[in-house]
């Protein structure tokens, strides 16, 4: 038991420190001139405040970026991952270990999500603008669906298990690999993790350390991939980080007090996400004629 937790904490600290150092080195080499704005920090504060209370942040960040028109669509996946790394690490350190999930399952799911994030970041960082718009539009709609399930209470019957074995263990680890990859295009893992573990017979509270621990590993792993490709907005990511740290710290003492009274906020988030999803898909559709025109000019 102790060994699994020590390994998990070691991985958590190592990947986050590596991501922070890599960002500093790349910032010095490329001499980014873009600076964070107060809007970036406000977005980081609000979304990470809500994330700490259990609503999530990726879909909301994507929606707010799209609504204000900055950064460019193809830079959104990298920006939200790079900008969420430090707040996620802070959240992991605040929450991690508070709930007694079976350590081997916890470690296996967290590590599989990190591997999935590395694979996902490599794929997303090479995708064309229209492909990213299409994937993120669909991802936002899926996220809105999970948010609606959470708001309506349409979840599987609650189990009581705090661990899994046999085929259930394998399914959970494999599914978390997929969720880690999907995080790179903006699908948050909180609601899907709740549904997954509920279907497998685990207690709903077990989702918290698994989700938060997964975020603490998969986000910096994805960040390393996006830092390597350079497909992110330095200024926006830095603003998210600064605001996100403050938002996490402010929300943490209020978790037990406020978390039960967020139904209205959840539905507001759903409306915003759906609007952003439709906007993203319309942008992808509008880019088709431009692509065809370019092809005609190149191949008369």
- Let me know the average pLDDT: 78
Strand pairing plus helix content: what structural class? mainly alpha
Q: Got a strand count?
A: 0
H/E series: HHHHHHHHHHHH
Shape: globular
Distance between the termini: 67 Å
Largest sheet data: none
Total of DSSP H or I helical runs spanning 4+ residues? 12
Domain count: 1
CA radius of gyration: 19 Å
Residues in β-strands, percent: under 5%
Describe the oligomeric state of these chains in a short phrase: single chain
Q: Spans of 5+ residues with little confidence (pLDDT < 50)? A: 290-300
Helical proportion? Answer: over 70%
Tell me about this structure.
- The protein has helices at 2-30, 38-52, 58-68, 76-95, 103-124, 129-152, 166-182, 190-199, 207-229, 234-251, 255-258, 263-298.
- The protein is an all-alpha fold.
- The chain has one domain.
- Helix 1 packs antiparallel against helix 4.
- The longest helix is centred in the last third of the chain and has 36 residues, at 263-298.
- The model is unreliable at 290-300 (pLDDT under 50).
């Amino acid at each position: 038991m102790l060994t699994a937790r020590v390994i998990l904490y070691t991985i958590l600290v190592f990947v986050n420190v590596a991501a922070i150092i890599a960002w500093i080195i790349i910032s010095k080499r490329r001499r980014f001139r873009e600076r964070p704005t107060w809007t970036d920090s406000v977005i980081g504060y609000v979304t990470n405040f809500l994330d700490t209370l259990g609503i999530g942040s990726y879909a909301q960040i994507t929606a707010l970026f799209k609504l204000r028109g900055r950064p460019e669509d193809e830079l959104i996946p990298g920006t939200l991952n790079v900008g969420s790394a430090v707040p996620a690490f802070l959240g992991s350190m605040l929450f991690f270990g508070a709930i007694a999930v079976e350590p081997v399952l916890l470690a296996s799911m967290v590590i599989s999500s990190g591997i999935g994030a590395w694979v996902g970041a490599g794929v997303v960082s090479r995708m064309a603008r229209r492909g990213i718009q299409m994937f993120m539009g669909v991802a936002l709609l899926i996220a809105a669906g999970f948010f609606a399930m959470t708001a309506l209470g349409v979840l599987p019957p609650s189990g009581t298990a705090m661990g899994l074995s046999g085929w259930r263990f394998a399914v959970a680890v494999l599914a978390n690999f997929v969720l880690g990859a999907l995080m790179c295009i903006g699908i948050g893992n909180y609601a899907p993790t709740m549904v997954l573990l509920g279907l497998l017979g685990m207690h709903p509270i077990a989702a918290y350390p698994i989700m938060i621990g997964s975020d603490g590993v998969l986000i910096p792993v994805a960040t390393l991939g996006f830092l390597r490709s350079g497909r992110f907005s330095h200024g926006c990511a830095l603003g998210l980080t600064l605001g996100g740290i403050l938002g996490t710290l402010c929300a943490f003492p209020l978790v037990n007090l406020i978390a039960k009274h967020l139904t209205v906020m959840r539905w507001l988030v759903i409306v915003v996400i759906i609007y952003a999803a439709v906007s993203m898909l319309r942008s992808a559709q509008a880019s088709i004629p431009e692509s065809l025109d370019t092809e005609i000019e190149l191949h008369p």
